From TrEMBL:
InterPro entries: Nck-associated_protein-1 (IPR019137). This is NCK associated protein 1 like. The gene is NCKAP1L. Residues 639-651 have a biased composition (Basic residues). PANTHER family: NCK-ASSOCIATED PROTEIN 1, NCK-ASSOCIATED PROTEIN 1-LIKE. It comes from Chinchilla lanigera (Long-tailed chinchilla). GO terms for biological process: actin polymerization-dependent cell motility; B cell homeostasis; B cell receptor signaling pathway; cell migration; cell projection assembly; chemotaxis; cortical actin cytoskeleton organization; erythrocyte development.
Amino acid sequence: MSLTSAYQHKLAEKLTILNNRGQGVLIRMYNIKKTCSDPKSKPPFLLEKSMESSIKYINKKFPNIDVRNSTQHLGPVHREKAEILRFLTNYYQSFVDVMEFRDHVYELLNTIDACQCHFDINLNFDFTRSYLDLIVTYTSVILLLSRIEDRRVLIGMYNCAHEMVHGHGDPSFARLGQMVLEYDHPLKKLTEEFGPHTKAVSGALLSLHFLFVRRNQGAEQWRNAQLLSLLSAPPAMINPANSDTMACEYLSVEVMERWIIIGFLLCHGCLNSNSQCQKLWKLGLQGSLYLTLIREDVLQVHKVTEDLFSGLKGYGKRVADIKESKEYVIANSGQFHCQRREFLRVAVKELETVLSDEPGLLGPKALFAFMALSFIRDEVTWLVRHTENVTKTKTPEDYADSSIAELLFLLEEIRALVRRHIKVIQQYHLQYLARFDALVLSDIIQNLSVCPEEESVIMSSFVSTLSSLNLKQVDGGEKFEFSGLRLDWFRLQAYTSVAKAPLHLHENPDLAKVMNLIVFHSQMLDSVEKVLVETSDLSTFCFHLRTFEKMFAVTLEEPTMLRYAIAFPLICTHFVHCTHEMCPEEYPHLKNHGLHHCNSFLEDLAKQTSNCVLEICAEQRNLSEQLLPKHCATTISKAKNKKTMKQRQAPRKGEPERDKPGAESHRKNRSLVTNMDKLHQHLMELAFTMNHVPSFSVFEHMIFPSEYLSSHLEARLNRAIVCLAGYNNTTQEILRPSELLAGVKAYIGFIQSLAQFLNADACRVIRNALLQQTQPLDACGEQTITTLYTNWYLESLLRQASSGTIVLSPAMQAFVSLPREGEQNFSAEEFSDISEMRALAELLGPYGMKFLSENLMWHVTSQIVELKLVVENMDTLVQIRSNFSKPDLMASLLPQLTGAENVLKRMTIIGVILSFRAMAQEGLREVFSSHCPFLMGPIECLKEFVTPDTDIKVTLSVFELASAAGVDCDIDPALVAAIANLKADNSSPEEEYKVACLLLIFLAVSLPLLATDPFSFYSIEKDGYNNNIHCLTKAIIQVSAALFTLYNKNIETHLKEFLVVASVSLLQLGQETDKLKTRNRESISLLMRLVVEESSFLTLDMLESCFPYVLLRNAYREVSRAFHLNRMPANSY
């Protein structure tokens, strides 16, 4: 064939297009096979029972299906013909694409044979690689086609539906049907078709021999050669890493194995006639048990080859060679690859360390980086496909690697280094191209003995393009584009590889060497990312998810590998590379796989990290707990009684002595590892992996590992805080707020110290977790400490206070448990003193205290609702209000009142609740003042500006602000709001106001009844009463202020009225002759002073006008005398 026709055939262009097209067709065949093998995605009508007869008929008669005379068998197809035609169009056209691809491939292969092309991977690399790739791709397409079980049904049913709709079958059906039949036994047919191409194929494969042998060396040979080492020859460290065949250095071994196995499988005739072919073939058989066709579809090398050769005459020795090779692979390949992986872990780690330290070396040694990536990728893919497919083996350890994460991590590190320092690579190779390659190429062109015009034009353009390069292009961020130059070199390879070419490339190897070097250098300017994908793409994991997950699980169990676990989410970024424009329907599924597994891996890592952090927090909390005041009692006691203890008998040997805080830090031997040491080591490894990259992209989604850790830490911290509270719903036990606060501070302190080690925003984590704990429920809908403490104080402390087993002691500013049997199982003062209220306010914050307040107010209003006795006694109370100063009339009216004790009891309960709220508010005020003094000042100042003349809405707004900060207000806005929601159905505001007035009258005239209660004695020690009636004063003042604010009436006037009526009632008690009724008269009289002290609306002068102070003085003296007499021992008189 003439040179002109070689130009016209455009071999380079056709190989490029057909290889890309072939990959698309192959992926479509894979997609059809995958779809039809899964009942969930299979075309629905193939699963219908009504279609079974039609499917059997089509399968049986294919491809000679008589549509018109087979209505009995094809009736169901006829009924759904339109749907079938619509659904199967893509499937059918994909099969037509296979047929057309086949036609173009054979046409090109015949053309190449006619041109008598010479293939040599070392010279015309692109031409040889594209040729071998085309053969392997075509074979893979045919093999995958034969593996689609429903291919006949899909094609035949489509044609039947087409004929039913259009009146004639599809024009392509006859040829397509014949092709499907021919490839029922694909390898037999393929070997027949490739017989004429044996010379070209075997020639191309033989050129691989030296390269394949070199790339299949063992770890020991690599070690002796100091492969990938930059430190082995320090003087040559900055010398450029060059090779006569640059692209061959990082060519995948798996790709070469596939070329050799499939090439000799199709052109097996040369195996018996050419010893070199036989030698290379045997070497190929000793590499792998399985070879990838596409994704997870593999070729079982030895079985397929043996099955084919067993049916051929004269191939007995080859079958024996196959069996021998298989035994060799089973016995040796596992250890062979295990040792190579071990070598790569060390060698690539050294390379990565040197390049990280001196990124400038990426210029001259860029080839080393891509070689390292290629070697790692080959070892990982070998392990993956064998782990997935080798199920029964005597040596399972050969197909497992607990340290695989380190290799994956190193691969990602090299990729990141190359991307990070791409400008270094560009600057170096731009100068190389312009100042060396261009000059060498120019010299070689001038020394060519023959140079046709076409070739001369192409090579001259190479020199001019390279000579025009300058460093300003890199500095200016200019995008380089050398794809045209590389395609021209590809064309030149094709032109100079035909038999009758005037310029033969194999006669001018120097030209090939320098051009291969130029191609690599040009790729370093414009296609670094493409070379990275070529050498390090691990998207195969997208189709071996079970193995991928298993490797990740093994990594999590291996402490030394934890720091490399981030490699697994990063590998998910590779999945985007397995998409193809000819199969867009795959994109959503691949995207889901990538995002799901990336998310899953990061979730597991974040979960482990947060668990480790919280375990250390728990240990820190245990250490912190040792410093609590309650634990120092023993130490103080021992120190105080030291002399006494010496005189006493020595302690028993069996009694353990409690270690002092800090004893855990004393070690006699540093090799002794504590639990805290292990946890810190574990956390260090996890922190390394979580901090490795701030973000990365998976299918256009930005992934931030720190966000996963933050969310997990936040959730775990929430649960940990709730667990620390130790709330037991059955026994009603809970931790003291001060102890919980100490524990929480220990947790927070450690998490804050992690801020410099973890990318997670520790401040945000703590802020969000603590803020959630101030709400009734956290973000997960779980109860918080706000809910737990609110419920506990209401259900345990205040309920027992209401029943009289717990007393409010104003002197101690706390609730105090009375020594009664079997009621409470806790000491009330330990949960309600000033320090505990401060701790509670610190934990719950303003939001939590507001929630507590709202719940307290709900209980207050529920008690107010029960005060219906006022309405029942309304007529009597109206008369009493008018005649309270008439003793004779009062004597007859008072007995008519019913339920006075009930009213007093409920008001006492209200007073207890409001007293607790006041203590909680005081704790909040102190905490708020210490945290935000700059806010507290203006709030208190604003409150001072409120006067009785201020508009009530403004007053309540200001008081609500002040109350939220814990400031005590004359009118409680929360109580006003709570009572406002208690509107009677049919009552008017006037009636409600009247009831409020009569409530005060009812309480005033009922006070003398309290004197009969033996627990109504005023305790000087507690500054209160054992039945909590001193809380009545707060209830009267607060409820009155809220009610009359609500009805817009004068509070002071009504409280004066209460003071007068109460004074008269108590003065009349002095005339009572029944000693039982006057038992605690003096103690009850003191309530009058407590009322005045409680209210800002009343003064002592007002009290003096209706209740002489001399009576209060006498009452104090009597109470004091009685208290001291009661405490005096019986025999001391």
